[in-house]
Write a structure and sequence with these properties.
This protein is mainly beta. The protein has one domain. 11% of the residues lie in helices and 47% in strands. The longest helix has 17 residues. The radius of gyration is 18 Å and the shape is globular.
Length: 161
Amino acid sequence: MRKLILTLVAASSILAACNSEKKTSVEADSSVAMTPDTIMAKTAEAFSDGCYAYTKNRDTALLTLKVAGEEVTGDLSYSLYEKDNNKGTIAGEIKGDTIIAEYDFNSEGVRSIREIVFLKKGGKLYEGFGEVETKGMKAIFKDRASLKFEGSIVFDPAACK
């Protein structure tokens, strides 16, 4: 029995060491959440070139992705009711079922850069939201592991224009 316990403890330690990066996980169909220290599913959905759109009431957002291996670039624009429109480009990387990128955009003549994170589930992209901080000229998430995806902007696959 003692040998079994020691083996389990050793295996847990090895798994924990191998999993030092924070990974994403999707819970239940109706809510999507990022949780720390979970092993990424080997069946993570593949990313490919394509277009995505979000439409709800008077809000719209459009995203075009260009994928080259684990790197991703594209165009992103938001037109949210009673808020400043913004349009720009994204550039980042794919990690399993997640895109982590910088969004370089213009809004009302002012250039800004902010970190964005998208989680892919069921062919859709869920935009992550969380507490941000400013580092230099960029707004970045304080802790990606605490990002929330439920109630977020959900991009559906769309025809490219």
